[in-house]
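Record Maltose/maltodextrin transport system permease protein, 431 aa.
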Amino acid sequence: MNHKTDKFKNHNPNVATILSIIFAGLGQLYNRRFLKGTIFIILEVAFLITLLDSINFGLWGLRTLGTIPGTDHSIRLLVFGVLSLIATIILLALYVWNVIDARNQAKKIKDGWMPKGFKDTIIHFYDTAFPYLMTVPGLLLMIFVVIFPLIFSVLLAFTNYNLYNSPPRNLVEWIGFDNFKELVTVPIWQETFISVLAWTIVWTVVATTLQIAIGLFLALIVNDPRIRFKKLIRTILILPWAVPAFVTILIFSAMFNDDFGTINRDIIIPLIGGEGIPWLSEPIYARTAIIMIQTWLGFPFIFALFTGVLQSISKDWYEAADVDGGSRFQKFRYITFPHVLFATAPLLIMQYAQNFNNFNIIYLFNEGGPPVRNSNAGGTDILISWVYKLTFETNNYAMAAVISLIMGLIISGFAFYQFRQTKSFKEEGEL
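=>
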């Protein structure tokens, strides 16, 4: 039980702060927080003995990317440097927390708060810190799986890492924003980037909007009270979703083949004659094909999503609309559509973001082809598949990192704006 006492009235928070700055844990010892102070001291001693030299070397490598060609491996130094940077940030955060904690504890003691005993300290620590301890493994995993690759990719965009500047034979160098300037000034890069970006936006908007529109249309039809055998119809419409996407894409790739595909052989040629449509050799037809395939792949999920939402709409609303003389279109516009959007807007936004980076269908259908003259991207390549080619086919890692960074900014900006605008994140009464 805390109570005021004159014993610590001269306790000085400034002394605790200065001691914690000099060496982590000393301020806690001054505050008679012996367990916490000991932990901080052990951490700093361990850092000074085992990590200081490694972090210094890592930060040196991050700054220079090596100085001796054939000996220093620039990419390994970059990886080690990023890890050192992350470790430095974590250690600085702990150091700052140590100083703040010591000062706050000293202020409380000066005001009359009495430090708890060892047993009570352990109990209090368990009660307050247990949730944080349980989240530490997940935090560490996120750091190495998400944050580390993200930082590495961003930094790679500011280097000249490509096929002709590959370690260990050559050193990679920091070149600032030269890659970004090259992307918008060098003709082949500029034209390819604009073309691929435009197609990526068209592909995302058209394919996603079509699958949403068809899913909503079919959900409205099946939800109509006049329709019989609803369960059977729903099962049939969801079947395309049950088949693995890569299997469906490969089947469609064979069906759309210019020479032996069943689309040309059994449908197009018997109807209009000639040699059929060049689905895989002409960009416009290849793009049309993958939009249709993505619509087929995507509408079952939207259909299932909208079906559940439509069943949750109260029938009283429609009965009230009937009393007021509302038409079918008016009931859809003022009741059905707003309710569906309110309930599903976040998931629909995710559909757009997912298709923006939908690598599978582009690569599995025709590997981003067909080739386009005066371009280092194929006719159906979107940004993500172009990045793949730059990375694994032409080894232009730095430019791939630049495009990846631009993609991330586009998706993040779009998603952030849409999430802020949607009413799903506002009070339901504002609908």
